[in-house]
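User: Predict ABC3 transporter permease protein domain-containing protein's structure from this.
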Amino acid sequence: KYSKITIETKSSIEENSEILVNRLDLKNFKLIYIINLGAFILLNIFNLGTVILTEINDFLGIMYILPGTGIESSLPLKISLSSLLIVVVSPLIAILLFYLIYKNISKINPSELIEKS
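Assistant:
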């Protein structure tokens, strides 16, 4: 229902049948969902907090001077350092979740599946 893998062996192709395997049980699906949601909320709260602190008192911020800065009293762009952290942390979380999802998929042995069916 949540993730399905179809494995066809030569005998099943000849017999026109498929072996369906559900490799991601509901417990793992809920765990991955909670990790995704928690990471999304925590990273957004962290980013919002550091952006507010950057705007108030230049805390953890980089002043980036764009072309035309200073014309008509414009100020340089303030970039929060948390955005750089989020750029690094988000892919690491994605890699961890892909590992949790697919660690058992590579261990599938078609001969064992034929015996179980």
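The two ends are 18 Å apart (CA to CA).
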